[in-house]
Amino acid sequence: MDSQGWDDRYAASELVWGAAPNQWVVRELTGHTPGHALDLAAGEGRNAIWLAAQGWEVTGLDFSAVVLERAERLTADLPDEVADHLTWRHGDARSFEAPAAGYDLVLVAYLQLPAADRRTALRRAADALAPGGTLLVVGHDLSNLTEGVGGPQDPAVLFTPDDVLADLADHGLRTVRAERVHRTVGAEPGHKDGGTGGGAAVAIDALVRLERGAE
User: Fold this and answer.
1) Strand boundaries in the chain, DSSP class E
2) What is the pTM of this model?
């Protein structure tokens, strides 16, 4: 889907993805020392807002102008101590320019792209890491198509942890975690995946956490 398609989708509904942060973002980053973070394809900002509340200086980047306007409105309703940590930026995950200093954290959550575009976006995300920085990638796993529920039904935009590792094999990053994780349906409105539903239906995500060595 191009930027106009996402503009139309966001314009048709309030809080497509819900207000709560993704549970894997919370699990992986709770207690992590705050620094400068980039949330790629940030959407309405649920993860960026949560990170800002933890003390991170967060740039949320998305190529939908409509969703960035919504994120700005949500930010206006936040306490100053959270809102002051947030910056919204219009741009494409495949072609954005990172500041020279880089980011201590780059988050890529549910950016479901065809393989070549995914590889471009992930390599750019990795290049944006500062020394010692963390790259966290979460998305709908390929196995979710046949074994899970919700998410895109096009295998071309699904991926596995091994796909992410292969995309970044020459970037010299240390693998902290690369696994499939399961969420019970119902916890994350809009995604139709994750959380505290009836306990029978499960969505399967790919989760990869990588670190750049300190220089």
Assistant:
1) 36-40, 57-62, 86-90, 103-109, 129-140, 174-184, 202-211
2) 0.87
